[in-house]
Amino acid sequence: MRILSGKYKGRHFYMPSGTRPTQNVLRAAVFDILGHDFKGLTFLDLFSGSGAVGLEAISRGAEEVTMVEKDPKNAETIRENCRILGIDLGEQYRLLEADVFVSMKRLSQNGQSFDIVFFDPPFDRNLVKKTLKCLGLNDILHAHSFLVAQHDPAESVDVPEHMKVVSERRYGASQLTILQKVTD
Fold it and tell me: Edge-to-edge strand order for the sheet containing 64-68?
């Protein structure tokens, strides 16, 4: 796998075996839809896997990126990928090695919010609805935040209250649904 654009463009990183990666074409689509300039934005990458999407956000200039990954093997891969790219994990770019749902609650309790939330849960567990519900229960979104879900096309996305669909596209065996928070 490689970084597609920005500061680390063309640099390669590791993908853990047994992980369904966010393919280059789909990652490119996410960032093309959302825009290329991430300067000043905060980004949350849930179910991070190798960290590919979070690393792409860092490369494109996101001010803060939080990656959440529960699996210790995948979390170690994210740390190794950061070492390869020369990214210092700390306060600006961080890895939470914890359950996604517990992490969202803690982030909310700590008063953190994000401009963009990306999530790509395992396809065989019906986690899209649960993730959207948890995002609705925990105040971690700015007024016009974007939610980006990569999911199995067979899994329907119930659009939460105060959200609108910006884009829905299919890429092979994956569906990409982008929602934006709307305020009254």
Answer: 93-96, 64-68, 42-46, 114-119, 141-151, 174-181, 163-171
Residue 126 CB contacts under 8 Å (≥ 6 apart), including other chains: 155
The answer to whether the CB of 83 falls within 8 A of the CB of 112 is no
Q: Domain 24-181: give its CATH code.
A: 3.40.50.150
Average pLDDT over residues 163-174: 90
What's the helix, strand, coil split of the chain in %, to 5?
30, 30, 40
Which own/partner pairs from 131-138 qualify as long-range (CB within 8 Å, at least 24 positions apart)?
131/46, 131/100, 131/101, 132/157, 132/158, 132/160, 133/160, 134/100, 134/101, 134/104, 134/105, 135/104, 135/160, 136/160, 136/161, 138/104, 138/105, 138/107, 138/108
pLDDT value at residue 99: 97
The closest alpha carbon to 115, from 63, 173, 49, 48, belongs to: 63
Q: Is residue 94 predicted with pLDDT exceeding 90?
A: yes
pTM above 0.85, yes or no: yes
> Which pLDDT score is estimated for 183?
78
Domain coordinates of the chain in residue numbers? 24-181
**Contacting residues for 99 by C-beta, under 8 A, at least 6 apart:** 70
Pair 43, 112: CB distance under 8 Å: no
